Amino acid sequence: MKRLTRSETARFLLEHDNYLILSHRRPDGDTTGSAAALCLGLRQLGKTAFVLENKEVSQRFRWLHEGLTKSAPEGNETVVSTDVASPSMLPEAFQPLLGKIALRIDHHGSATSFTDAELVDPNSASCAELIWDVLSLMGVQADKKIAEAVYVGTSTDTGCFRYSNTTAHTFETAAVCARAGARIYELNQELFETNTLGRLKMQGWIVEHMKMLSGGKMAICAIPRAVEEEIGVTQDDMDNISSFPRTVAGVCVAATLRETADGDTKISVRAVPGYDAAKVTEKFGGGGHKGAAGASLKMPLAEAAEAVEKAMLELG
Length: 316
Ligand SMILES: [Mn+2]
Hints:
With 316 residues, the chain is of the alpha/beta class. It has 13 helices and 13 strands. It has two domains: 2-192, inorganic pyrophosphatase (n-terminal core) (Alpha-Beta Complex); 198-313, Roll (Diaminopimelate Epimerase, Chain A, domain 1).
């Protein structure tokens, strides 16, 4: 595996063609936006490029991939993954591509290399920023579509420029997007200022059921599947719900657990600077960033809650 700089990545992308771009499991705004921006940028330069259709992309972000997708690989493409930290982050349907991925562009600090070459910058708040850096080195001009894809990635991974990962570079990238005509106000309204009734009800349930730990410095909440079904929340309603218990005054680390359809548990941890969320999830084979991390546990909800609580308390 070869580590590339931004310029080396730009050169690689200019030298190859026939691209197939991959996004990650439970796709968020960053992986969806990054894949879209890369595809659009490559097309602007006359390259053949497609995003491999990720069936898990929700309604909220689906518009970003409109007109860009291919439903299955043909076998001879240059495969590039965006925002994918480990093989387990690839959707089930993409797993056969393992070993055939030429390049990984990512910003996860705790990651497992699985491609021939990679551009990884853990200091980049979003993968979309990295994508834009590389595209601009290649001579791509930001147009409205590219700008909106980059803006969605950048804004969602920073909680609309509020999280501790936000840097001057994040704002510079956002400025490029604004100048190129991205609908900043509309996207912010849609992504950050609007709640469905289902999401608000879920937040209400979390307030009632979360357990405070460590004298209020930590919070943990385990959400049974039956509760999600009863409230009637969609995946979009649950997107980034784990950042909610962290918003309680005094809470530095918060973990949210969700029961999967198979009776296992997914955890999502959020932490303020000074604490490392990935330290909790790494214990369970997961990964992520200091501020936000996740893992899948082959354990029923109650058992997982106990194990995660223990791991959280070890943070001190
Ligand atoms: Mn990301």
